[in-house]
């Protein structure tokens, strides 16, 4: 069977690509996750100018193709080469991997901010009032009451967003990053073995399945105290 | 600056508009194809026969788990290889042929759209209250009449928000076809960049055009939703 025959020869390259895919997704998602709590708070109840700016940012990211955003940063930075060189940033923008991580982080951050805002606004007001009644300061309320509950509410949606980002990271192959998709296209263009596409498909599905499993595991831990007694 | 985007031989306005036209045609052709396919997959997923249900659920799981660009390459290259094999058999003297990229784009985007649409439709079908169907039966409506008068209008109401999101995704996903040699908005922009050496300016304009299309779509969708929910009391 062609699928298994070529798999052995293709696998080292495909696994190398898989590692790059995971790095792209992990870095992008992690940077976005670090920035989103603050932005979500601003979006939920910050000053009006900040809210308007955030709404414009989120609307732009959601209203334009990721591929166009990627081209805007990777090719677009070339238009400012002189300025970027004087700033010492040209080395960063010349590398397609860096550009892809930057774009994925900015893109995912918009989605994660919206999801987390929904979670924050879904925290029952009574919990916050109770925390205030026992004399918690505002930072303590955020740390102990609002964010733990908001993350629990937002958790499944955040998982979906990371899976979407993982799938979208295949676009990095178009700006010559050798992620899983990039390696797949490279192998196909050299050998015209069609089966390599199916091998890549299986790898993508395995990544998704593993992620879903880990995310559900984490979700159970986040809501341990809510599990029905007797089954934990 | 403005003359870069003017109409005619000096500017790129006409090329970009031609690309925009391809993008819109692609999205508007994919929508009905993907919807029909989505209805079929949703029907499979709701089937009482386990084997059919497995096919429906398997299809949605598979298609939603794969990157769109991978699906596009599988469809484009797979159809291309298949077509050449058939052509070599029918007319061996003719050289290799390319599968038309527009058709490949429509097929790939419709396959993806159908998987997501099937999930939206399945959820909407299951949300139709049993009581309304019983009421229809109680006043003697035929099964067909119940479908057209009760189920379909409710389905439209429940599925519209999800479908709206899918339409926006479809509009954005059309940008992917630029990598299989289809002259859409993205590719027209790329050509203009190659000549003018102003990548940031042109890709920014392309982004703004996509953004505008999405904002207009959102306006239309909000009106459609208002219309679908007319006569509905809100708590």
UniProtKB/TrEMBL annotation, chain A:
As for subcellular location, the record says:
Cell inner membrane; Cell membrane
Enumerate the spans annotated as ABC transmembrane type-1 domain.
Answer: 18-215
Describe its membrane topology: Multi-pass membrane protein
Please name the InterPro entries in this protein's record.
AA_ABC_transptr_permease_3TM, ArtM/GltK/GlnP/TcyL/YhdX-like, MetI-like, MetI-like_sf
- Which intervals of the chain form a coiled coil? none
Keyword annotations of the record? Cell inner membrane, Cell membrane, Membrane, Transmembrane, Transmembrane helix, Transport
Indicate the principal place this protein occupies in or around the cell.
Answer: membrane
Span-the-membrane segments of this chain are 20-42, 162-182, 194-215
Q: Which family does it belong to?
A: Belongs to the binding-protein-dependent transport system permease family. HisMQ subfamily.
Q: What is this protein called?
A: ABC transporter permease subunit
Automatic annotation (TrEMBL), chain B:
Q: Please report which protein family the annotation says this sequence is part of.
A: Belongs to the binding-protein-dependent transport system permease family. HisMQ subfamily.
Please report the name of this protein according to its UniProt entry: ABC transporter permease subunit
Where found?
Cell inner membrane; Cell membrane
| Record keyword Cell inner membrane present | yes
Q: Which InterPro entries match?
A: AA_ABC_transptr_permease_3TM, ABC_transp_permease_HisMQ, MetI-like, MetI-like_sf
- Look up and give the membrane topology term: Multi-pass membrane protein
Keyword Zinc attributed: no
Pfam family, any one: BPD_transp_1
Domain ABC transmembrane type-1 positions:
20-221
Note the PROSITE patterns from the entry. ABC_TM1
Q: Locate the transmembrane regions by residue number.
A: 20-49, 69-90, 102-125, 146-168, 200-224
Keywords on this record?
Cell inner membrane, Cell membrane, Membrane, Transmembrane, Transmembrane helix, Transport
């Amino acid at each position: 069977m062609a699928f298994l025959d070529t798999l052995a020869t293709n696998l080292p390259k495909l696994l190398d690509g898989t590692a790059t895919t995971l790095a792209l997704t992990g870095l992008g998602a992690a940077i976005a996750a670090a920035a989103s709590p603050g932005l979500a708070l601003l979006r939920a109840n910050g000053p009006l100018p900040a809210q308007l700016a955030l709404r414009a940012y989120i609307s732009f990211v959601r209203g334009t193709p990721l591929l166009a955003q990627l081209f805007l940063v990777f090719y677009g930075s070339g238009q400012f080469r002189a300025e970027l060189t004087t700033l010492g940033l040209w080395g960063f923008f010349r590398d397609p991997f860096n550009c892809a991580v930057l774009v994925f982080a900015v893109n995912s951050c918009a989605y994660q901010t919206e999801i987390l805002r929904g979670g924050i606004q879904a925290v029952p007001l009574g919990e916050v009032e109770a925390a205030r009644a026992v004399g918690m300061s505002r930072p303590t309320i955020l740390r102990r009451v609002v964010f733990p509950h908001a993350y629990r509410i937002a958790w499944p949606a955040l998982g979906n967003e990371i899976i979407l980002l993982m799938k979208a990271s295949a676009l990095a192959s178009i700006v010559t990053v050798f992620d899983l998709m990039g390696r797949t296209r490279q192998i196909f263009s050299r050998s015209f073995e069609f089966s390599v596409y199916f091998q890549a498909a299986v790898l993508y599905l395995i990544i998704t399945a593993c992620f879903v499993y880990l995310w559900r595991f984490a979700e159970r831990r986040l809501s341990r105290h809510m599990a029905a007694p007797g089954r934990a | 600056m403005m003359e870069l985007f003017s109409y005619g031989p000096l500017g790129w306005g006409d090329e970009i508009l031609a690309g925009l036209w391809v993008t819109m045609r692609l999205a508007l052709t994919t929508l009905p194809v993907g919807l029909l396919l989505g209805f079929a997959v949703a029907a499979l997923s709701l089937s009482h026969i386990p084997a059919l249900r497995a096919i429906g659920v398997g299809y949605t799981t598979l298609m939603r788990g794969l990157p769109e660009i991978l699906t596009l390459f599988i469809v484009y290259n797979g159809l291309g290889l298949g077509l050449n094999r058939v052509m070599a058999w029918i007319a061996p003297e003719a050289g290799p042929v390319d599968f038309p990229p527009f058709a490949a784009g429509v097929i790939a985007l419709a396959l993806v759209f159908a998987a997501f649409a099937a999930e939206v439709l399945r959820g909407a079908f299951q949300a139709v209250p049993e009581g309304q169907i019983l009421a229809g039966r109680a006043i003697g409506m035929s099964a067909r009449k119940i479908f057209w008068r009760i189920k379909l209008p409710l389905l439209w109401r429940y599925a519209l928000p999800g479908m709206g999101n899918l339409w926006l995704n479809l509009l954005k996903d059309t940008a992917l076809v630029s990598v299989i040699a289809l002259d859409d908005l993205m590719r027209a922009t790329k050509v203009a960049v190659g000549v003018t050496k102003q990548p940031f300016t042109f890709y920014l304009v392309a982004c703004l055009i996509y953004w505008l299309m999405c904002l207009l779509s959102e306006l239309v969708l909000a009106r459609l939703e208002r219309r679908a929910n007319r006569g509905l009391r809100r708590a």
